[in-house]
Amino acid sequence: MDSMTTEIKYEMKLVSSLVKVFPDETPVYQPECMKLTGLWGETVSFQAAYTGDCSMRERLDVQVISSIADHVRVRTVEQVPVGRAVNEIVDDNYLKTTSGLYPDLLRDLRDGKAIVCSRQWRSLWIDVELTDAIPGGDYEIEICLVKNGTKVCSAMAKVAVIGVQLPRLSIMHTEWMHADCLADYYHVDVFSEEHWEILENYFREYVKRSCNMMLVPLFTSPLDTAIGLERTTTQLVEVEVKNGEYSFGFNQVKRWIDLCKKCGIEYFEMSHLFSQWGAKYAPKVVALVDGKEEKIFGWHTPAVGEYTRFLHAFLPQLIAKLREWGIADRTYFHISDEPREEHLESYRAAKESLGDLLEGFHTFDALSSYEFYRHGLIDKPIPGNNEIEEFLAHGLTDMWTYYCTLQCYEVSNRFMSMPSARNRIYGVQLYKYDIIGILHWGYNFYNSQFSIEHINPYEVTDAGNAFPSGDPFLVYPGADRHPEESIRMMVHDEAMADLRALKLLESFTSKEYVMELIEGELAEPLTFRIYPKSDMYLITLRNRVNREIARYAWEN
Asked: CA 223, 225, 231: angle at the middle one, nearest 5?
């Protein structure tokens, strides 16, 4: 037979949302990971991996056949370049440690078609949005690739919908929104109407994926900025200096807060009042000085001095506004990000310069040393999940935690080089330790390290070879000015849904009952460093929890 007329063979396999499909690796169908259940109010995701032995790439139609097809969204999983895959220290729980192309970006289908690349595996990401418009019951969802009107391959998934509403997230969850990166990437003026429209697009996606606290850039955030350099000014507070006295306008702050409320944000965090890594300097503050815009504070300004007088004029007015807007009881204040133990005295000086201005408010910061809490310098410390044991050992309760680039050994995180189970286990860990809040620094950081230059996150995913890819951002800046999500974003949302489900089951039973489900089959108790590594554990656990919720809900 003529080779040009040889019949092309196509293949499709279902895999869970926790699998990362690489072009050169044949995925394994695991039926133990494909029993899908979910509650109203969550997104259940899975993947259809596919390949074809075509000689050239093809674009085939994607078809969804289901009675709930209107609730099904299909996206392609795109490979992105990973320069820095890991830090110097790694453990045995990574998929890869080398540079290359990794699956991460989720992109809506163009013209309803998917690309088949010759003898390469790709995958479709399928989301099933479960709402109370779907009666409880079992549903089939067939995913098909269609060529010239003919189905060439398909796979059938089944989803069991539990007719019980998943409760709202009970903890605080913030991923830092970098307003300047959006203005820089889309080339719009900061806080122009175009910028506000983009911000709303990002805020809405942010809330949709279980984020409920928003960073408020009172002044340009002093985060990841090299000493002496500046980030694009994103200052909401209007400042004027006349005859040496300060006056303030809060119209833009109110607009930010109002937009947050409109999009569903519940909690607010005021941007850091002092510089990162030690609180030695003031953040960048611009003002109208006798009618001319000037930078009045920044790297050239010590944290304690004239800036102290500025804060004593500013903070009482800000706090009055927070009370007027009805959010004072849901607002937290940052002092300085990631101080280390050698910064104890400079942090102390900055904190003490505030006097009692923040009395009645929580102060919280990402830090690694227990000494800051022991000395009474921080109300709510936020240790990394690799350092939290010390805080727990001292009997602290109502704890926050975070991870970023340094949390790379043994603990959960969401680098592209890590298996997705390492991302999702976070929800179970947060449940066990009654964590009240989580923080991450990079929702959309599109700069190189220290903000020396802007980057294109579709081409550079590691902040200029500084951090493992997957640390600087969760979403990509879509061409339509809406964010494009990532595998990591969706799996992290699954972790939050797990936490919500565990809390719901506890409300029907007890903490001890739920912990027996979590740890009953483990050789040793789950911790932030010791936890199950398999996809099956997480999926099976969640299915058991869902069944128990259904049983207790229906009995009641």
From this structure: 90
